[in-house]
Amino acid sequence: MKLTLSEIAKHLDGDVIGDSSCLISGVSEIQNSEPNTITFLSNPLYRQYIKNTNAAAILVADPSLLNGKNGIVVENPQLAMARTLALYTTEKETSPTIHSKAVIAEDAQIGDKVNIDANVIIDSGVRIGDRSSIGANTVIGSDTVIGKDCSIASNVSIDKKIIVYDYVEDLNIYYKNAKFVIAPIFHGSGMKTKVAEALMHGKKIIGTPEAFVGYEDHRHKAGWICNNANEFVSAIDSANNSIDEYYDEDLRKIYKDNYSYESAIDEYKKIL
Asked: What's the pTM value of the predicted model, to 2 decimals?
């Protein structure tokens, strides 16, 4: 399936910059972009990837970021990317079903077109949004809320009173209201931008050694390092009991001095 940039912009209520007839065959991440795809930029930490991106077009809020590249200017690039992805997502060949071996509490609220596999247990008070999918052998605790279009893998256990959000328009709200950030990253390469995001918002981080790759000089100040499930449980308990302020100015300063776009420019100036 291919859509012109103009067709995508019409769906997003955005403004095309560049070649409106440019054909787009899918979406990709800006740091791992592919030809003939569209990507997005909402986090300034990713600005460095614009110059060499292979994507045919970029969703941005500020047209000056395009620097001669094709793009669509929208109010919220992250939300626009989610809506663009939906354009290229085909419907499943089989209709969503609720397996006969799933155990669902009578007062659980199940949305439209929800797929629930075998041996799933859904406790009292659970709400599951439209078009979500729950994998086999998963347990969802009481009063938990699963948003729309969410996919929960098999063999997952979700405790009671947990909220799994679907697409959100503004992550800043959730960072502001969070006591701390959990980064259970076990695979990957390079520095993890979500760790920088947490520091940018002045949040302590509970993460694996992999999550703190590139942040070694500050990881002990930034939070807790965990290698297994028990250590994560212990660290979460400790953070929940010890953190009183939801914003740590010292962590924000670590971000500004070492990992912000401005600090990177300062380092480049020293080299040049």
From this structure: 0.58
